[in-house]
Amino acid sequence: MTVTIVIRRRCAHVLERAGERRTDARWRESRARERGKEFDTFARVIVNAAGPFCDSVRKMADKDAPLMICPSSGVHIVLPDYYSPEGMGLIVPKTKDGRIAFLLPWLGKTVAGTTDSSTTITMLPEPREDEIQFILDAISDYLKIQFVRRSDILSAWSGIRRWLQIPLQSTGSISRDHVVLEDYLWSCHITGGNGQHIEDAVDAAIKSGRLKPTNGCVTEHLRIVGGDGWDPALFAILSQHYICMKKARNGKVIPAVMDTAVSKHLSHSYGTLAERVATIAQNENLGKRLAHGYPYLEAEVAYCARNEYCETAVDFIARRSRLAFLDTDAARRALPRIIQILASEHKWDKARQNLELEKAKEFLESFKSYKNAQLTDGKHAGK
């Protein structure tokens, strides 16, 4: 079981929970591993915010705890940019079978979705072909295109929503609201809903642990790292003052301009810290793009390894960048170079590099682009 501590939107640090005990002072000790080292952590209150895995964590403390989660599969597909105009989206509030569908521009491509069907909880959920077919059918009726081709799908993935069973252990009524549950004096559980549930969980933790904060909530106006001093014109400064030094296959270093697509990507992804990434691209010969047609630079892998806890290849293709979600096959082609840079940063041996490649390929198999999809359909199949 893993518990994720979100440090910032682009940076998550994963701790593997190996055991726990309770002391007389109502402190909780957990054993965790980071890079093979064990250490103890202590807290007055544990907040279980494990999403669809919330019930699994609850049952560690009480094996008879009633189930709270009713998992639901939400599938999305990514199509080329010509399926949606820039800055404009489409929502179908009621499809032929009563579900919702949407089409939105996203990171230079088009994302379409979504489904809402019962599923089982797994670490690597996969989209079913009938769910992909539903999305294709739903959006085809609203586009001035003869049909949406299955072969146009660059990536398709499934996520698990954690709807609540009301009452607990009943599948007759499903709630999309959130709930904060206090099982013991030292723990509270939060699941379901969006937005407001985070503040409610903190309030419950304060009450449960009898904590005495010195002030109220301060995060509403707190800027993320890189936000202070950011200006929309920063991308122009990057293009003017930095160059991308690229190493060719023959080992020769070639200077190249930092084009607008790359500079805009760096500015919007890293804020004022984009200049640090640009400096690595210029001074360490890591200015080459990781995948043709996408603005991600080799320098980003090195920067994220040094500053954003990027510990695995999957960390980069799925969480530090969105390449796996944008184009599964492009992510697969970029893997060898990503692993090579991470190996240099983390001092990996050949065995670790091979393991990273194997795990990343397994992760990408849960995505269903046209090339790795095992099923095709008749109506939407295209060449």
From TrEMBL:
Residues 217-353 form the Alpha-glycerophosphate oxidase C-terminal domain. Its EC number is 1.1.5.3. It comes from the Eukaryota. Keywords: FAD, Flavoprotein, Mitochondrion, Oxidoreductase, Transit peptide. GO terms for cellular component: mitochondrion. Its cofactor is FAD. It is an enzyme of class 1 (oxidoreductase). Residues 25-164 form the FAD dependent oxidoreductase domain. It is found in: Mitochondrion. Pathway: Polyol metabolism; glycerol degradation via glycerol kinase pathway; glycerone phosphate from sn-glycerol 3-phosphate (anaerobic route): step 1/1. One of its GO terms (molecular function) is glycerol-3-phosphate dehydrogenase (quinone) activity. GO terms for biological process: glycerol-3-phosphate metabolic process. Belongs to the FAD-dependent glycerol-3-phosphate dehydrogenase family. This is glycerol-3-phosphate dehydrogenase. It comes from Ananas comosus. The lineage of its organism: Eukaryota, Viridiplantae, Streptophyta, Embryophyta, Tracheophyta.
